[in-house]
Amino acid sequence: MPRADFQLVIGLEVHAQLLTTSKLFSGASTSFGGEPNAHTSIVCLGLPGVLPVLNERAVELAIRTGLALECRIAERSEWSRKHYFYPDLPKGYQITQYEFPICLGGRVVFDTPGGEQAVRLTRIHMEEDAGKLVHEAGASLVDLNRAGTPLLEIVSEPDLRSADDAVEYLKALRDVLVWIGVNDGNLEEGSFRCDANVSVMPKGSATFGTRCELKNLNSFRFIKQAIELEATRQVELIERGEKVEQETRLFDPQRGETRSMRSKEDAHDYRYFPEPDLPPLVLTKERIAAERAKQPELPRARRRRYLQALGLPAYDAGVLTADRAMSDFFERCVEAAGDAKQVSNWFMGELSRLLNETKTTVAQVKFTPAQLSALLQAVKGGVLSGPGAKEVFAELFATGKDPAVIIAEKGLAQVNDDGPLLEAIAQAMAESPKNVESYRGGNTKIVGYFVGQVMKKLGGKGNPKRINELLVEKLRG
Prior knowledge:
The chain has 477 residues and is an alpha+beta fold. The chain has 15 helices and 17 strands. The longest helix is centred in the middle third of the chain and has 20 residues, at 220-239.
C-alpha cells in the first residue's frame, strides 16, 4: 500500500468474452479447451485472401451491455486494424474499434463501506482476441483456438483510489455481465480478465503520476495484491528520487512482485488505420430501442426492491440476487405463494442446502412454484409440522411429486382433531401424576415435558400449538 501522503490512482481495462458460439468474424467455435488449434478457420488463421464477416450475435450482446451500463450507443461505429507482431496474432494485426467505438460513457455502481460509489466508463468497444503462447520444454508453442474470439473491452476512467475499490468495481461489473447473459464471468479460463493501469501522486495533487499497466491478473485476490505491490514499488522509486517509467508489467504471484514486460505502447505505436474489409457498423434508433425494451431488471435494482417492497433483510436480498436463475425462480415462487419472507426462508435454508448437497442448479429443480405454494399452505393451515414440512420438501425436491401426494404416502399429516389429542394428553397426565402436581404447584415450565410426551404418543404428528392449548386447560384442572 502507498504511504499516507501518496494517493493511488487506478483505471481498469476489462476484456470480457462474449457468449457466442462462433467467433467475431468467422464460423469457428468459441468452445473453451479442446486440442490446440482445433477451433480455427481460414479466417482466424489469417490466410491470404480471406474476408471477415461480422457476427450479428456479438453486436446484439455489445448493445445489451452498453444499455445495462448506461452508455450512449453509437448509431455508427467503425473498425480499425491495430498492428503488433506476436506469434499469437496470425494476421499481424487485430481487428478492433478505435476512434469510433460502439458504446461511449456509462458507469459501474458498487457499494463500499463509505457508501455507494460510481466509476465512470470511457468506452466499450468490440474486438477479436489473440491466440495463446504455451511455453514448455524450452519451446514456445502457439495455440490459436482463442484467436478471433469476440471480446468487449470495457475501459474505465481513472476514478478508483484503492485496490479494494478496484476489486468491488470488478465484482459489480462481472455481476451485471453475467446477469444479462453476455459473459460467463470465469476469470480462471480467461473469459473475464483485467489489466490495471496504476499510478501514484502526492495527496492533494491534481496531476496524475506516470502509469504502469499490470497484466496477468486472473483472480480478484491477485488483482488486489498486484495493485498494492505496484503502488508500493512506485512510491519507493519516487522517494529515492527516481522516475517511474511508463511500461507494461507482469504480476508474479509466486514471488509476490511485479516485473517489467515491455515498454508501454501508445496509440501511434500500433499504427491504427481503418479496416478496409469491413464497412462501418450502422445501428438504427429502432434497433437500439428494441434492445432497450428487452433489458432485464438489474441485480442492484432488484436488491433494492427486495429490501423496500418485499421487506427482506439485506442478507437475504444479497443472496437471492447473486444468481439470476435463483432470483427469477424466487420471483415466480413469491408470485405463486404470496409471502416473500416465507419463500425466502425456504430458499435460504432447505433449497440452498439441497442444491449444495446434490451439486445441482436451480435450472434442474423438479418442483414448480405452485407446488412450493401448496407446501407452504399446508404448513400455514396446520396440516404439516415444521419437521414434517422439511421431510415433504426433501421429497418434493427429489421427485417433483405434489405435496398432497407426499403427505399421504408418508402419513405426515398433523393430527388436529381434539379427540385423539385429548386422549393422548389424558394418558400422559396419568403416567406422570407428580409432574401434574408440580405444574399445579407453580412449575408452569413443565408443560414442555408434557407436550413432548403427547407428541411421542402421536408419532410426532400432533399439532403442537393445539396440544399446548389443551394441555394448559387440562393441567389447570
